[in-house]
C-alpha cells in the first residue's frame, strides 16, 4: 500500500502542487530545479542506459493525473513517446495557480528532440518541433482522413 493512504485505504488529502505520485510530500520543483535534477539530454537519449534500481519507467497512455507525475514517467500518446522531465506552476488568466508538466519528445518529421507543456488533464500535445509545427496538418493517416472529411463539409477557414 502506498504511504499516502491511511489504514482504511482512503487517500489522505494532499495538495497537488506539492504532492508527487511517488508517495512522500516534497515541494514541487521549479522549472530550473527539475532541469538540474533530471538532466534534459539524459532524460530522453539515455533512458535505456541508466539503471532505474530494478524498476522500469512508468508508462501511461492518457494525460489524466491527480498529482504531478514523477520525472521519467513515459506517456505514449497517439503513437508518439513523451517523457516527463519536470514541472512548474502557471498562473491562469483568472488568477488561479495550476501545475503544468514539461514533456520531452522527438519531432515526428525530423526526429529532433523538443519540449512542450501540458496541464494535469490536458487533451493533446505537440507532435512536431518549432521548425516543423503545422497547425491543422495531421501527422498520422487517421488524422488526415478526419481533416479531409471536415474540409469537404465545412471548407477552409477564411483569413481575416
UniProtKB/TrEMBL annotation:
<protein>
    <submittedName>
        <fullName>Uncharacterized protein</fullName>
    </submittedName>
</protein>
<feature type="region of interest" description="Disordered">
    <location>
        <begin position="1"/>
        <end position="33"/>
    </location>
</feature>
<feature type="region of interest" description="Disordered">
    <location>
        <begin position="140"/>
        <end position="160"/>
    </location>
</feature>
<feature type="compositionally biased region" description="Basic residues">
    <location>
        <begin position="143"/>
        <end position="160"/>
    </location>
</feature>
